[in-house]
Amino acid sequence: MENKGYTQDGSVDLHGRPVLASRTGRWRACFFLVGYEAFERMAFYGVASNLVVYLTTQLHEDTVSSVRNVNNWSGSVWITPILGAYLADSYLGRFWTFTVSSLIYVMGMVLLTMAVSIKSLRPTCTDGLCENAQRSQIAFFYTALYIMAVGSGGTKPNISTFGADQFDDFDPNEKRLKASFFNWWMFGSFLGALIATIGLVYIQENVGWALGYGIPTVGLLVSLVIFYVGTPNYRHKVRNSKSPGKEIVRVLIAAFGNRGLKLPDDLEELYEVEDEQYVISGKRKLHHTPAFRFLDKAAIGQAPNPFTVTQVEETKLVISMFLVWLTILIPTTIWAQVNTLFVKQGTTLDRSLGSLQMPAASLSSFITFSMLISVPLYDRYFVSFMRRRTGNARGITLLQRLGIGFVLQVLVTGVAYFVELKRMQVIKQNNTDGPKDIVPMTIFWLLPQYILLGIADVFIAIGMLEFFYDQSPEEMRSLGTTFFTSGIGVGNFMNSFLVTVVDKLSKRGGRKSWIGNNLNDSHLDYYYGFIMVMSVLNLAAFFWMARGYNYKKEALKASAEMEDRAIDSASLGLQV
User: Fold this and answer.
1) How far apart are CA 182 and CA 160, in angstroms?
2) For the chain, which terminal residue's Cβ has fewer other Cβ atoms within 10 angstroms, N or C?
3) ∠ CA(315), CA(316), CA(322), 5° rounding?
């Protein structure tokens, strides 16, 4: 069969038919997806950025409870993608998992808007107490929040992975375009976040929570229309395994079962199938790496039912990614401060802008501003500059990108610590230690830590997403990107746990809590100092881990005959 301009990676349309490279995929498809991402992020940050303010001012929750509840909800939003990715990789495919989940997401946003709009559903708590009759309204509010979290679990890991699938790795030009995909993907995400943190939080505090939640709900509906308008342009990957995760477990069991066997001196003796079989099946062949040599025993040729070198290497990749994942937990714990303690800290400072009062949550827009400026600079100039010196298509390696971000985050914690020391000094000088006293210190003292965090995110947030997508086994790309989302989720849960423990321990012996209801009479500087020490230790652990990391080595070349067979296989209508 002659290749008549079809994609070389076996991509198909929604009906399982081969697709023409010239008419599908690439940026013509990604524009629709980036449009969705911008609106979805506007909806998410429209809720998340100011949620701690809603809980403390409308539901009158105390500081520790509100921080814990925000972190637990945010953690759920970022941890549920594990389930969504598993469903996509093993059963429904990315497109249909996204479709079902997006409807759940919209339902959660609609219910949330109703919870803050309709009088009979809106609790009216006063003096820190809520009548028992209003507990059902509070439960309705939290139910809507967590329905939104469940919907996000199926959309977040699949929409970004689906976007990366629009580029053919077998085509050198498309592979080059793909190198910039995650940078511009996150650019759209930042744009949506910027609208939320500048416009929506102001509307929520100065016009009304109903309108502040209603606008992103409508925006989310619009984003779904945008997504489905682009359907004819999308490429879909053929799904070849019903449960790729189970294969990882079987390799581990086989390696343990063969622990008494001796590895051959010649690596060519390890079991592997012909290249042609990989292309026919649509699976990528991986070359052997020296990492975790004990797993190679699962591929010993004379063993009963040996696994291929590629299957063993996929298992190695998952283990290696897990080690990297452990080092992102502290940085994501720092991110958790942005929508919680940073906001509460900002509410104690002078927020006046002429006759207007700036919402404390709006300061996070400077994170987005710095990212929106930094992403084009990074993609257009930094990458080009470094590419000429390193020969790396990305300019620097994936782990080098993360490492630079981690160093910047250590600076963020240091700046936050010293700014809080300054705030405490001003409080002492002016005797503004009352719970409702405004410290005579402009909120823009917090600006450096926000800007630094935004620059760090260009390296960490985008770097994490790209790293986990790139290093994941081919059939686990959706599940692989959940290393990114789950890291953020666990970071939020860790912050919730740390805030609770620190609050209890610091109050022992009748002492003041580091994170009390009255931040003007607490020791938030101690907590920031504690996080700074953890960041330094985590940075050392990351450098140690990165030195021994082995990157994935794929065999991407295919003969014309093999490409034709891949197209023939796709034309059989395999499930996507």
Assistant:
1) 8
2) N
3) 95
Going 322 to 327 to 333 to 338, the CA torsion angle's sign is negative
Alpha carbon of residue 94 to chain centroid: 17
**CB < 8 Å & 24+ apart, contacts of 145-149:** 145/47, 145/73, 145/108, 145/112, 146/73, 146/76, 146/108, 147/104, 147/107, 147/108, 147/111, 148/47, 148/77, 148/105, 148/108, 148/109, 148/112, 149/73, 149/76, 149/77, 149/80, 149/108
Q: For residue 554, what are the β-bridge partners?
A: 286
The model's pTM is: 0.76
As a whole number of angstroms, the distance between CA 179 and CA 553 comes to 17
Cα separation of 127 and 132, whole Å? 14
- For tokens 């919730």, what's the residue? 496
Q: Is the separation of the CB atoms in 94 and 161 below 8 Å?
A: yes
Two tokens at 203? 């509307």
Q: Do residues 235 and 95 lie in contact, with contact meaning Cβ atoms separated by under 8 Å?
A: no
Annotated domain spans of the chain:
26-239+328-555, 244-316
Considering the domain delimited by 26-239+328-555, tell me its CATH architecture. Up-down Bundle (1.20)
Strand partners, 126: 129
- The alpha carbon of 383 is separated from its chain's Cα centroid by a whole number of angstroms, namely 22
**Tokens 């260009």 — which residue?**
458
Reported for 20-24, long-range contacts at CB under 8 A and 24+ positions apart, including other chains, are: 21/168, 21/171, 21/174, 23/233, 24/166, 24/232, 24/233, 24/234, 24/235
Q: For residue 48, what are its two tokens?
A: 């998340």
Nearest to 43 by CA among 120, 179, 156: 156
- Integer CA distances (angstroms), 8 to 172, 521, 566, in order: 11, 64, 8
DSSP 325-375: HHHTHHHHHHHTTTTTHHHHHHHTEE-EETTEE--GGGGGHHHHHHHHHHH
pLDDT string in tens for the chain (576-residue length):
445 688 877 788 888 888 888 888 888 888 888 888 888 989 998 898 889 888 888 888 888 888 889 889 988 988 888 888 888 877 888 889 999 999 999 999 999 999 988 888 877 665 545 555 467 888 899 999 999 999 988 888 788 888 888 888 788 888 877 777 877 887 888 788 888 888 898 899 889 899 999 999 998 898 888 888 888 889 888 765 556 667 888 899 888 888 888 888 777 778 888 767 766 666 778 888 888 888 988 888 776 778 888 888 889 988 999 999 999 999 999 888 887 888 888 888 998 887 778 888 888 888 888 888 888 888 888 888 888 888 887 888 999 999 999 999 999 999 999 999 999 999 999 998 888 889 999 999 999 999 999 999 889 988 888 888 888 887 777 667 788 888 888 988 898 888 888 888 888 877 888 888 888 888 889 999 999 999 999 999 999 999 888 888 766 554 344 444 444 443 433 333
Asked if 465 and 160 touch (Cβ cutoff 8 Å), the reply is yes
Instruction: Tell me which residue of 368, 453, 341 sits closest to 198, measured CA to CA.
Output: 368
Bridge-based pairing state of the strands 356-357 and 352-353: antiparallel
Residue pair 24/234 in contact (Cβ under 8 Å)? The answer is yes
